[in-house]
Design a protein that fits this description.
The protein is mainly α. It has one domain. The chain is built from eight helices and three strands. A three-stranded antiparallel β-sheet has the order 1-2-3. The radius of gyration is 14 Å and the shape is globular. The protein binds zinc ion (ZN). Zinc ion binds next to loops.
């Protein structure tokens, strides 16, 4: 995926925000509100990823992924709830910050049991990608 295709994908699924010295900022919107802003610096990091990792990262940020909420929208799955805990909708914000089954993994990586969207927003994409891969929810 080239830089322009990545930015186009993110632009199509997010909302244009504004331009700063560090580049254009996009805000990706999830069901529970935005949790990540995208600068050109971060986008350049993403372009350096393997195709597999980039697919996971873009899925995390846009919501177009293999989590149950999205698969239910596509009529591939019938239950939008989390496959691990069954307590909340299976979306990126839940997986990264709230899933009770991943509490110990989250504590080991981030030093906290739960992460609010405002805290997820502070994390580098590499951390979010590492946690998502560690959850084994993406193939
Ligand atoms: Zn869960």
């Amino acid at each position: 995926m080239t830089y322009s295709v990545l930015m186009g994908t993110l632009f199509a699924n997010g909302r244009f925000k504004n331009r700063t010295k560090s580049g254009t900022i996009f805000r990706v919107v999830d069901k529970q509100g935005s949790f990540c802003k995208i600068t050109t610096r971060f986008a350049k990091y993403a372009v350096g990823l393997s195709r597999k990792d980039l697919k996971i990262l873009v899925g995390l940020l846009t919501g177009h992924n293999t989590l149950n909420q999205h698969l239910t929208l596509l009529k591939i799955e019938e239950d939008p709830m989390c496959r691990l805990c069954g307590e909340e909708y299976d979306i990126s914000v839940h997986l990264l910050g709230r899933c009770s089954v991943l509490v110990e993994k989250r504590r080991k990586q981030f030093g906290k049991h739960l992460l609010f969207p405002s805290e997820l927003r502070q994390e580098h994409w590499s951390s979010l990608l590492k946690f998502a891969k560690n959850s084994k929810r993406f193939k």
